[in-house]
Specification:
Order of helices and strands: HEHEEEEEHEHHHHE
Number of domains: 2
Structural class: alpha+beta
Shape: elongated
Strand content: 15-25%
Length: 156
Amino acid sequence: MSKRKKAVEMAEGLYHHKTIIKAERFDGSTEMARRWGMVQSPSADDGWVFNYEQLTPVAAGRWLINDDGNVFTESDTYFRKAYSALPVIPAVVAEWFDHSRQRGMNFYDAISAPRHPKELDAWLMAPTDQGADETLSQFMRAWLDGYIVAEKPAEP
């Protein structure tokens, strides 16, 4: 069997699904259960369930996930392996993304343009606890997957 054929056979059935989801780690509170549309289980031992037809108990510590209206739960271990939070970027980076996309720039053009804001350079070059490439990785993930704009710190 050729290496190419073996690689194709190994890749069959494997897919990457990129979507933004809403997720919260369930704290067991009545307020959170009601916000997610759960009801008290008919069996007091089970705690909260999503509905009476599907009596799947939802314990505190599990992740509640809403993927385009499809609501389900995952264990903390699985959730942390399968999902990652959107990167948080400064407003100047978000503004540069908007500016770049309005002008039809691709990722390479956006990061290497000679006239991008000095604040963008400062952010990209700032040292981080995770290493020198962390901000570049955040820039790339934000460009591709979406982002959250960091709130400006309150002025004294």
